[in-house]
Each structure stands twice: as structure tokens, then as C-alpha cells.
Amino acid sequence: EAHMDDLESFIRVIPDFPQPGILFRDISPLLRDHFRATIDLLIEQFDKSVWAEVDAIVGIESRGFILASGLAYAMHKGLLMVRKPGKLPPPHHSVNYSLEYGQDTLQMSSCFSAQKVLVVDDVLATGGTLLAACELCERAGHTVQGVMTLINLRAINDFRWKGMQAKSPFCYD
């Protein structure tokens, strides 16, 4: 059983990628060598009472899909996807949001009945993507029960969704 500090050592830090000034955190070695331990660590972020209330896990494209899939399987939950434009057949809901440089859009199918969901992504940086995904879930009729990321770059966000903070095993200030 890998300890949390041991797991963290499998997150590669790559300076100036994808552009100068960015410290990219590559989770590929962590997923390759410790996928089960990573999913277990994420499961521990919420009490059993919260998991009991959740119907489905929402994964955000693209690395959020990997984590959400593992969680949905392990916890016997459904899986919903938040995608970039042009990837989902209609009908779907869309939310536009701001990035550091410009705008982006996220979409989610509108074919599913309302569920209680947990929103999952790999990294929480400025929080724009995560906020848009939570808004998208609500537009689609779902209730966000919790938000989780593997990594939270707390120094560059003060993320809250309706008073909820994101749960993250690896936080950096």
C-alpha cells in the first residue's frame, strides 16, 4: 500500500509547459504505477454518507474522465461526461466561460434524468473549468453534491461552488 507522500512523488513537475511560467503537473506516472491507490485516495476525500447520496460521477474532459471512470467503477455509480464542443451529439446543454486568454465552452448531454452528482477533474488551477462544469450540471438538472480534483493549486484559486470547496489530496500553495 503506497503512502500519500510516496504517491505524490509520482507526479512529475515540468517547468514552462505548455508555455513559459507554467509549472505543469504530469499525473501519467502516478496513473501508470499507482492507479488503484490514486482512486482509493480520491474515495477517501468524502465520507461514506456523501458517497451514499451520489448517483453519478461527472468527469471533465479529458484527464477527469480517467479519474471519474475509476471512481464510478469502484463506487458502483453512473458516469457522466462534460465535453468540449463538437464531441457530443445533440441534445446537450452548453456553458461558455473565460480562460486566462479568451473563451471556451463545455457541453453535457441533456438526455439524462436529474441525478445527484460528484464533479471530478485532475487539476484545479484558476477554477474556471470546474465552475463552468458545476453550472453545466445544474443546467442539465443535476445537483452537485461535491467537487473533487486530484491536485489543487490553491495559490491561484479560491474555488467555491455554493459554499463547497473542492476536496483534493494534493494541494499546493
Structure commentary:
The protein is an alpha/beta fold. The protein contains five helices and nine strands; from the N terminus they run H-E-E-H-H-E-H-E-E-E-E-H-E-E. It has helices spanning 4-8, 28-43, 48-53, 63-75, 128-139; strands at residues 12-15, 23-26, 56-60, 78-83, 92-99, 102-109, 116-124, 143-153, 170-172. Strands 5-6-4-3-7-8-9 form a seven-stranded mixed sheet, with helices on both faces. A two-stranded antiparallel ribbon has the order 1-2. The protein is globular. The chain starts with a helix and ends with a strand. The mean pLDDT is 95.
Instruction: Tell me the Rg in angstroms.
Output: 16 Å
Total DSSP E strands:
9
Approximately what portion of the residues adopt beta-strand conformation? 25-35%
Beginning-to-end CA distance, first to last residue: 27 Å
Count of helical regions: 5
Class from secondary-structure proportions: alpha/beta
Described by strand count, sense and barrel closure, the largest sheet is:
7 strands, mixed
Mean pLDDT equals 95
Low-confidence stretches: none
Strand order in the sheet with the most strands: 5-6-4-3-7-8-9
Shape, principal axes of CA atoms: globular
Order of helices and strands: HEEHHEHEEEEHEE
Summarize the amount of helix as a percent range. 25-40%
Summarize this, please?
It contains five helices and nine strands, in the order αββααβαββββαββ.
List keywords for this structure.
single chain; 173 residues; alpha/beta; seven-stranded mixed β-sheet; two-stranded antiparallel sheet; 5 helices; 30% helix
